[in-house]
């Protein structure tokens, strides 16, 4: 972590003319955090943020009318931001999806996503929540398996509840602290989250080498999932591993490589469908862009994993 930085943000849309509120909200959030696209309803009216940067960490409290946020792979490639965005909600439902995982957080739960990859976020109601932005390199030193926990819901275990309460209290009182105190608090936050994830991310009996292979393969899938030719044979050859060994790696995580690829493709399809709408041409375009050559097969897999057809999903 770097030295103290006393950049403070205190912004409320009540001070902005109604016709300019949507753009002002977008500009404020991207300035405080990073680039993304977003969508709000025509009657979007309420938004406020109180936050600060302490060293390399950002912490903030927000209140916002319904909105949907898309962090695309193009955004990630353009700004090359390597960080983890941690979101904590006090009750109202928020949904985040990344890398085939979907986390629905509400009632004192939290989750995290990586800014180095695409993700989507949406809330259906006016919502208040706290959040953190933590450097990726720092977190991976404390929790090497952190990428296995993206878009997983946390908050049920005792240490997770302590972390939630600590962040909530800090968000209420951070503007009472001087810059040096904020910097010290930021270090404690990182250490505490490392402890939380150290207990949350060791779920298999795999050896460290097996876990390293698994993470490298899942990262490769995340980079190549749009290629229709991606297969266990191609992946095994790329990493010079046997197909049986690769299958065993995924079995330890209660899944298969084929399912992991399909889940990642459908996650991206859901994100694209929210942006493009419900037309048949849009569904066809999305199917091809995420690696499906057969539209009927895409629709079948989409319904199997989400419970609804692609055209129904876009209008839900």
CATH topology of the largest domain: Jelly Rolls
H-E order = EHEEEEHEEEEEEHHHHHHHHHH
Radius of gyration: 20 Å
In terms of structural class, how would the helical and strand content be classed?
alpha+beta
Number of strands: 11
* Main CATH class of the largest domain: Mainly Beta
Strand order of the largest sheet: 1-3-4-11-6-9
CATH superfamily heading of the largest domain:
Jelly Rolls
In the residues, how many domains can be counted?
A: 2
- Helical proportion? 40-55%
**Count, helices:** 12
Low-confidence stretches: 1-5
Note the main sheet.
Answer: 6 strands, antiparallel
The CA-CA distance between the termini, in Å, is 43 Å
Beta-strand level of the residues, as a percent range?
A: 15-25%
- What CATH architecture of the largest domain would you give? Sandwich
Average residue-wise pLDDT:
87
Global geometry: globular
